[in-house]
Write a structure and sequence with these properties.
Blueprint (H helix, E strand, L loop, with lengths): L20 E5 L8 H6 L2 E10 L3 E2 L11 H10 L3 E7 L7 H9 L15 E3 L14 H19 L4 E4 L1 H8 L11 E4 L17 E5 L7 E5 L3 H7 L7
Parallel strand pairs: 1-2, 2-4, 4-5, 5-6, 6-7, 7-8
Antiparallel strand pairs: 1-9, 2-3, 8-9
Helix pairs in contact: 3-4
Organism: Multifurca ochricompacta
Pfam families: Glyco_hydro_25
Protein name: N,O-diacetylmuramidase
Length: 237
């Protein structure tokens, strides 16, 4: 036997994962100084491209919304991994129509390592119910239609941005999409609360609606290597 006092024990310090910082922005932020963003430690960004089939932020007919291309290209030019998002309007057209509109106006994906898969923004819009007057089962079908259409073109399922409360109210807390679609949860708090049914973790966390950088403040659930890899392959595959 070896006396405990003779053992040399070296403790390995725990190192916190980096959780890369990101932002999501829209036309409300205008054209952004992406060099400053990179200097502030921003690693990724989601940029609004489309809303319903009402307008595209790259469409010159909507002069107030012509910030998408400048921001999308500007982020990439300084090494910030970026993706586009679509603000859904399930009340005005079907999921496939809106997915194709998104894909045709900046929402595509390529495995270049700097492009995130597109995201669909699902949140309360109009009263009285905030669910666009769709039943819970119809909402799940609408989201699935959007998701499958996006996948058929890009081979990637779109990220779902939502809140747990909206998901419970408007989909009945469906777990139907959790096996394929990465989750981006909006929870403006210092700690993450409960997630919608089926998801064991969130890929992105929008933890504040303002902060030191323009737009909403986000974290990626991983490290920078994982974020870069996410630009190539699906975390769900």
């Amino acid at each position: 036997f070896v006396a405990l006092s003779a053992l040399s024990v070296v403790a390995t310090p725990l190192v916190k994962r980096s959780d890369p910082q990101g932002v999501d922005v829209s036309h409300w932020q205008g054209t952004i100084d992406w060099n400053a963003m990179a200097a502030n430690g921003i690693s990724f960004s989601y940029i609004k491209a489309t809303e319903g089939t009402i307008y595209s932020l790259a469409d010159s007919h909507y002069s107030n919304y012509r910030c998408f291309s400048a921001n999308y290209d500007g982020a990439a030019s300084v090494g910030i991994i970026r993706g586009a998002y679509h603000y859904a309007h399930p009340d005005i057209s079907d999921g496939a129509t809106q997915a194709n509109f998104f894909l045709g106006n900046g929402g595509g994906w390529s495995g270049d390592g700097i492009t995130l898969p597109g995201a669909i923004d699902l949140e309360k819009h109009f009263p009285p119910d905030g669910c666009y007057s769709l039943s819970q089962s119809d909402m799940v079908s609408w989201i699935s239609d959007f998701s499958n259409t996006y996948f058929s073109t890009t081979s990637r399922y779109p990220v779902i941005y939502t809140t747990t409360s909206w998901w419970i109210q408007c989909t009945g807390n469906s777990a139907d999409l959790s096996s394929n679609n990465p989750l981006w949860i909006a929870e403006w708090a210092s700690t993450l609360g409960s997630l919608p049914a089926g998801w064991r973790f969130t890929t992105f966390w929008q933890y504040a609606d303002s902060g030191p950088n323009p737009g909403d403040q986000d974290l990626f659930n991983g490290d920078i290597t994982g974020l870069q890899r996410y630009g190539f392959t699906s975390l769900c595959s």
